[in-house]
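Quick one:
INPUT:
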């Protein structure tokens, strides 16, 4: 008898040219190969099924089966996820993934259970930096008054407000038109976004603030996974792990090349250490206020990360 086959849909903001698009293609290929053709995934790139927020909502309603999105867009379903996006929380990507691949990641995954979602992969977005059309950010005052598109996260909005900027959350699909029309002065994103998505076409200055690394999520609908026999559930886990490793390595390898491309298009500047120190001081000041929004579990996760970092 022929074995049952399964067809799934994956919704994503990504395009084929970035590390996320390549990794989600690898995920689909790995699923098909490891399942001997029993699992097939159709990929819908470039927000073709809707915005990040809409894609996650569709996953909660079982309209799509997998979603690639930034953590910030999932915080409305699990506020504790804000914990990983506190500004200047992570010293480097190695520490971040050590935590997310371990107990910290398991605890965060559990906060999405009530929404019928699971985190099956943590992907690397790279540290975010601020771009704008007014001036390089060298002194703390240089960021004041800038109307910046920020992540749709209460923590990030408050951080930039405390810096004196005018944070303006909006979906990624709206960003480039808003920059081109002058609705906002700037934005903050890593090289993996700024170059592939042509942010440089609408921005003059890119200042290396390195304020946050928002990991990307490979989400699965629990209802979709529940349809699978146990052997294919294992295949999903294995394919997700393989795609995650692939994406992180590719993103890391491409960062230097991307920065060279960005330097050819924009004025890029290092931010002096004294300015970064001032930004870190502001960052720490918003942690306490952020705890109320992310709930007891989010606070406990942050405190555990800070305790380990201090050891």
């Amino acid at each position: 008898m022929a074995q049952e086959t399964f067809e799934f849909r994956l919704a994503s903001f990504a395009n084929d040219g970035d590390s996320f698009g390549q990794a989600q293609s690898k995920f689909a290929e790995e699923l098909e190969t490891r399942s001997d053709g029993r699992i097939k995934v159709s990929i819908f790139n470039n927000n073709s099924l809707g915005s990040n927020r809409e894609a996650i909502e569709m996953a909660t309603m079982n309209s799509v089966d997998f979603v690639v999105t930034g953590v910030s867009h999932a915080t409305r379903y699990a506020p504790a996820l804000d914990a990983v996006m506190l500004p200047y929380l992570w010293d480097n990507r190695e520490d971040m993934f050590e935590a997310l691949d371990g107990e910290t990641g398991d605890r965060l995954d559990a906060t999405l259970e009530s929404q019928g979602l699971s985190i099956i992969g943590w992907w690397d977005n790279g540290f975010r930096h601020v771009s704008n059309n007014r001036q390089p950010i060298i002194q703390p005052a240089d960021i004041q008054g800038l109307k910046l598109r920020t992540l749709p996260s209460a923590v990030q909005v408050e951080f930039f407000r405390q810096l004196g900027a005018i944070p303006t959350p909006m979906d990624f699909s709206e960003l480039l038109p808003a920059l081109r029309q002058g609705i906002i002065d700037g934005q903050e994103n890593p090289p993996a976004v700024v170059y592939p998505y042509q942010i440089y076409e609408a921005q003059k200055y890119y200042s290396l603030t390195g304020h946050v690394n928002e990991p990307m999520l490979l989400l699965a609908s629990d209802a979709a996974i529940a349809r699978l026999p146990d052997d294919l559930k294992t295949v999903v886990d294995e394919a997700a792990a393989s795609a995650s490793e692939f994406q992180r390595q590719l993103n890391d390898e491409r960062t230097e090349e991307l920065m060279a491309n960005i330097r050819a298009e924009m004025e890029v500047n290092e931010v002096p250490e004294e300015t970064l120190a001032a930004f870190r001081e502001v960052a720490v000041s918003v942690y306490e206020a952020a705890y109320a929004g992310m709930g007891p579990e989010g606070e406990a996760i942050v405190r555990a990360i800070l305790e380990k970092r201090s050891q």
